[in-house]
């Protein structure tokens, strides 16, 4: 360790097991030494990498601490090597975190500190998302156009531009943009990245009651991203408007399979099965009974996985009331089960009968 403040320790200072500790001590003794500063910067970059990745399997990345750590290297000396790229990456992650938290001002401040001309398109997209939070739609769209100049992120730019136009109420422009830029091309039907565009297209068409086109669009999104339950929920919405309740239940069954512990997925499926059973009860009572049995299973799952959620007990109560009408031979049994479910529902409502749905209140009295 020549010229080092701890050179008097001799070769022992170079042993691997103690070298880092000696470097740390040397930095404290002589923080003006270039090699000591460089080692300090390298060590802090390694620590920042751990913060950005998470120190353990379940640890949450901490870009805020990483930015603070990496910013210290620049302040120590302008002549010593330090990683500008690592700081830029940490600032971008910090900006994304702040955007997700709804802090547009903090995100814009972090983005202003990024010095990465080679990644100007990604920085512009992040800036556009931050500006979208402030509802400054014109500036946000201008940033998307700036990002698009590189030509490296056409799908991402089109998705964000469409989101901005939808938020701004410019539905015609949004539809024209996604169709002309991406969806009119053959690869749009095979590229999974275009799935959000197909979903937004379906959303616009559903609002315009172009139901067949909306259905084909949302199903295209589902084909491109078959593991995304959101698209199945949108497919169910379109099918509901079309009045195709059995297909609604089918779509929501797939959604619940992809998101098995979601209370919303289970509740939507149970409600869809109930509606579908009511529709076919006169024409096909056996099918209606089968759907109600499926509804009972789904509602039971909901009450077990989310026992404090009132909707599960309400759906279970409605299921037993429908089974009472459908299977008259076991009507007494189903009525008792419905009363038990209603009792559980009241417990979740803290005994407040005024919160009971009016139709259930009428059935079970005051």
Q: Secondary-structure element order, as H and E?
A: HHHHHHHHHHHHHHHHHH
Give the proportion of residues in helices. over 70%
The largest sheet, given as strand count, sense and whether it forms a barrel, is: none
Helix/strand structural class: mainly alpha
Using the alpha-carbon principal axes, give the shape.
elongated
Global Rg: 30 Å
Q: What count of helical segments does DSSP give?
A: 18
How much strand?
under 5%
Mean pLDDT across every amino acid position? 87
Uncertain regions: pLDDT < 50 for 5+ in a row? none
Task: Work out the number of β strands.
Answer: 0
Calculate the terminal CA-CA distance, rounded to whole Å: 87 Å
Overview of this protein structure:
The protein has 366 residues and is mainly alpha-helical. The protein has a domain at 1-36. Helix content is 72%, strand content 0%. It has helices at 16-29, 34-53, 63-76, 84-100, 104-112, 120-133, 137-148, 154-167, 171-183, 195-207, 211-224, 229-242, 245-258, 263-280, 285-305, 310-326, 331-348, 358-364. The termini are far apart. 37% of the residues are buried.
């Amino acid at each position: 360790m020549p010229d080092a403040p701890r050179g008097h320790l001799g070769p022992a200072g170079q042993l691997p097991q103690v070298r880092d500790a000696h470097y740390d001590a040397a930095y404290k003794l002589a923080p003006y030494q270039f090699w000591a500063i460089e080692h300090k910067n390298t060590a802090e970059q390694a620590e920042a990498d751990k913060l950005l990745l998470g120190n353990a399997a379940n640890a949450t990345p901490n870009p805020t601490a990483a930015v603070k750590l990496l910013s210290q290297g620049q302040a120590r000396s302008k002549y010593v090597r330090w990683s500008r790229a690592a700081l830029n990456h940490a600032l971008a992650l910090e900006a994304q975190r702040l955007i997700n938290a709804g802090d547009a001002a903090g995100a814009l401040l972090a983005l202003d500190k990024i010095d990465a001309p080679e990644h100007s398109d990604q920085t512009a997209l992040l800036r556009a998302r931050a500006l979208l939070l402030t509802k400054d739609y014109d500036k946000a769209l201008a940033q998307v156009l700036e990002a698009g100049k590189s030509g490296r992120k056409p799908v991402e730019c089109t998705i964000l531009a469409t989101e901005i136009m939808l938020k701004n109420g410019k539905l015609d422009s949004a539809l024209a943009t996604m169709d002309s830029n991406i969806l009119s091309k053959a690869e749009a039907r095979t590229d999974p990245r275009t799935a959000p565009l197909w979903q937004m297209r379906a959303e616009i068409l559903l609002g315009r009651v172009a139901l067949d086109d909306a259905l084909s669009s949302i199903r295209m999104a589902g084909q491109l991203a078959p593991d995304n339950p959101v698209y199945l929920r949108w497919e169910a919405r379109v099918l509901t408007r079309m009045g195709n309740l059995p297909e609604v239940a089918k779509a929501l069954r797939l959604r619940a399979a992809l998101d098995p512990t979601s209370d919303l997925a289970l509740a939507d499926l149970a409600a869809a099965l109930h509606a579908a059973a009511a529709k076919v009860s006169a024409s096909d009572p056996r099918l209606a009974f089968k759907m109600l049995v499926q509804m009972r299973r789904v509602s039971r799952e909901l009450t077990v996985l989310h026992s404090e959620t009132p909707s599960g007990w309400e759906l279970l109560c409605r299921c037993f009331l429908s089974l009472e009408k459908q299977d008259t031979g076991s009507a007494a049994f189903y009525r008792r089960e419905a009363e038990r479910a209603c009792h559980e529902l009241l417990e979740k409502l803290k005994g407040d009968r005024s919160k009971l749905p009016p139709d259930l209140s009428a059935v079970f009295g005051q």
